[in-house]
Amino acid sequence: MSTPSILSALKKLRILLSRPEKIKALWIAIFAVISSFFEVITASLIVVFAQVLSQPEIGLTYLRKLGITAELSPGRTILYFAVAVGSIYFVKNLVAAVEIFFQNFSIQQMCYNFKNKLLNKYIEADYGFYLTRNSSLGAQIVGNDTELMFNSGMSAFASIISESIVFCILISLIVYLNPSLAIIIFTLAGLIGLLLTKIILPKFYKFGQQLQQASLMGFQTLLQFFHAFKEIILLGKREQFIKAYAYQAFKKAHVQAWQTSLNALPRVIIEVLFVGLFVIAIGILALEHDSPSQMMGVLGGYLYAGFRLMPGLNRIINQLNLFKSSIPPIERVYTDYTTIAQCQTYKDIPVFHFNTTISFKDVSFKYINTNTNALQNINFEIKKGECIGIVGETGSGKSTVVDTLLGLLTPQSGAVLIDDVFPVTTVQWHQKIGYVPQTLYLLDDTVENNIAFGETTINQDALALAIDAAQLTKFINKLPDGIKTTVGERGVRLSGGERQRIAIARALYRNPEILIFDEATSALDNETEAKLMETINKLRKDRTVIMIAHRLTTLKDCDRILLMNKGCLDRIVNYKDLIKSPKKEKTNA
Ligand SMILES: Nc1ncnc2c1ncn2[C@@H]1O[C@H](COP(=O)(O)OP(=O)(O)OP(=O)(O)O)[C@@H](O)[C@H]1O
Ligand SMILES: [Mg+2]
C-alpha cells in the first residue's frame, strides 16, 4: 500500500506557509539543531565523567589538553569535572526551556495566522462554492485539520529533526567507542526502520484518514441532531440519530485506541532490544577488557548513550507516526487552500453610482451538477426608482434571477450590468443593496446585533428607523430585554413572522438604494404585511425595489411584474393585467 510520503507533505506545508512563517519554521529547526548539539555535548561529557570517576588521572590528561596544567588531587579533579558537568546541564536545560517556549508559541501563532488566512480564502470564494460545500466539512477543515497540521505536523517535524541529530551523533560516538556494537545497533535500527516504513507508517496514514472521516461524520450527525430536534422528536427518530452518532463515535474511539496502542508499542520493543544489547555489550567488553574498572568508563558511556539513544529512537518513531497521521489533514487543507475559486470582487474599480438601469442581457445560467438551465436567455431592464415584482411557479427561477442580480451567481452566457457598464459582482454594488433572503439566517445574538449584523458600533437612529419601518416596535417593547433580548440559534425563540421582520429591519438598517425582497413577507399576516408595504411605499421615493412574492396583493404597488416560467421570462405585465391573468390560480392571492 503506497501512501503519500512525508516529503510530499512537507512540500505542501512549504507552499501553505507564508515567507515569514517559513522563516519561523527555519528558526524552529535551528533551535532543534542547537538543543541537539547541547544534548550531544552532555552525552559526551558523561562518558568523560564516568572515566574520570574510575581513573581521576585521565581527568588531568583532559585538563592538560585544555591548557590547564595544575596538579590536582583525585578528589579535586572529580569535583571540578562534576561542576563542569552540572554547569553544562544547567545551560542545556535553559536552552531546552527557551526552545520549548519558542516552538510552542511560534507554532500556535502560525496556526492562528493560518486559520485567518484560510477563512479569508473562504470568504473570497465564489458563492457557487457554498452551494456545494457541506458546512461541517468547512468547520472541520478550519477548526480541526489546521490544528492537527500545526500541533501534530509541525511539532512532530521539529522533534524528528532534533531527535534524529542526537541519534546520529550518539550512534557515531558508539561507532568510535566500539564498532562491533555499532554494527549490531545499525542492524537492529535498520530492521526497525524497515518495519516502520513498510508496515507501521502506512497504518498511521490510514488512521489519520479514518479519524478524519469519523470526526467529520460524527460532527455532522451531531450538528443535524441539534438542528433537527423537532423533526427527530415528531418523526420518532431519536434512536436512529443517537445510533448514527454512536456508530461514528465508536469508529473514532476504535481507531484512536489502535493508534495510541501502536504508538506505545515501539517503546516496549526497543526496551527489550536495549536490554539485550546491553547484555551483549557487557559480554563483548568482558571478553576484550577483563578488568571491571576499565570496563566502567566505557560502560558508563554505553549506559548514557543507551538511556538517551533508545528513548530517542522511540521518540523518532512516535513523531514519525504522528506526522504520518497528520498527512491527511495537511492534504485536505492544501487541496482547499489551493483550489477554492476566488470570486472577482473588483475591489479596485472606480467608485460608481447607480444612475439609470439594471439590465439583464440574454442571461442564461445553469447550476453545477444539473442538466437544465435554471435561467434561459433572460432579457429585461429595471429603471432606477422602479418597483418590480417577480412571480412564477415554485422552481421557475425567481430566486436565481435575484442571485444573478446580486452578483452571487455568474451566468454562463449573457451579463447583468449596472448602467450598461458596471458588473454586479462588486463590493460597491453590494453596499447599495438591502436584501431579505427567502431562507434567512439569524445569529444567536441580540435583536439589535441581528439587525446591525456584524457592526460593532451601532447607529441608534438607523436602528430605530429600521425597527419602526419593519413593524417591529410593538414586538420589541414586549420583549423582556427589548432590543437586547437574544433570539436563540437561527432565531428559534421567535415566530416565523418575527424572524422575517428582523431580516427586513436588517435590510433597511443600511438605508440602501436598492431593496430586494425574496418572499420576505410570506410569514406575515395580512394586516402586518399591509402596514409594512405602506412604509416600503413611503421609502420607495428614491429607491429601486424588487420583490418576489407568491401572494399577488403584495405586488399591487409594483410598476411592472415579471412572470417567470420554467427558467424563462414569460411576460412583463402590470398588476391589473396580472390579476386578470389565467395564471393567478397558481398563486394564493
Ligand atoms: N444550488 C442549486 N443547485 C442546483 N439546482 C438548484 C440550486 N438552487 C436552485 N436550483 C434549481 O433551480 C431551479 C430554480 O430555483 P429557484 O430557487 O430560482 O426557484 P424559485 O422560482 O425561487 O422557487 P420558489 O418559489 O420555490 O422559491 C429549481 O429547479 C431548483 O431546483
Ligand atoms: Mg425562491
Question: Helix tally?
Answer: 19
* Averaged pLDDT: 87
Strand order of the largest sheet: 6-7-8-3-9-10
* H and E order: HHHHHHHHHHHEEEHEEHEHHHHEHEEEH
Distance between the termini: 65 Å
Shape: elongated
Would you identify the CATH architecture of the largest domain?
Answer: Up-down Bundle
The biggest beta sheet, please? Answer: 6 strands, mixed
Radius of gyration: 36 Å
* Number of distinct beta strands: 10
User: Would you give the CATH topology of the largest domain?
Assistant: ABC transporter transmembrane region fold
Question: In CATH, what is the class of the largest domain?
Answer: Mainly Alpha
Ligands bound here? adenosine-5'-triphosphate, magnesium ion
Into which percentage range does the β-strand content fall? 5-15%
Low-pLDDT ranges: 584-589
Q: Which structural category do the helix and sheet elements fall into?
A: alpha/beta
Task: Give the CATH H-level superfamily of the largest domain.
Answer: ABC transporter type 1, transmembrane domain
| Percent in helix | 55-70%
How many domains would you count in the coordinates? 2
Q: Your description of this structure?
A:
By secondary structure, the chain is an alpha/beta fold. The chain folds into two domains: 6-339, ABC transporter type 1, transmembrane domain (ABC transporter transmembrane region fold, Up-down Bundle); 357-586, P-loop containing nucleotide triphosphate hydrolases (Rossmann fold, 3-Layer(aba) Sandwich). It contains 19 helices and ten strands. It has helices spanning 6-16, 19-54, 56-65, 74-123, 127-132, 135-177, 179-227, 229-234, 238-288, 292-325, 327-339, 398-405, 427-431, 447-452, 460-469, 473-478, 496-509, 526-539, 575-580, and strands spanning 357-365, 375-383, 387-392, 413-418, 422-423, 433-436, 514-518, 544-548, 560-565, 568-573. The strands form two sheets. A six-stranded mixed beta sheet has the order 6-7-8-3-9-10, with helices on both faces. Strands 2-1-4-5 form a four-stranded antiparallel beta sheet, with helices on one face. β9 and β10 form a beta hairpin. α6 (135-177) crosses α11 and α15 crosses α17. The longest helix is centred in the middle third of the chain and has 51 residues, at 238-288. It is elongated, with a radius of gyration of 36 Å. 33% of the residues are buried. Bound molecules: adenosine-5'-triphosphate and magnesium ion.
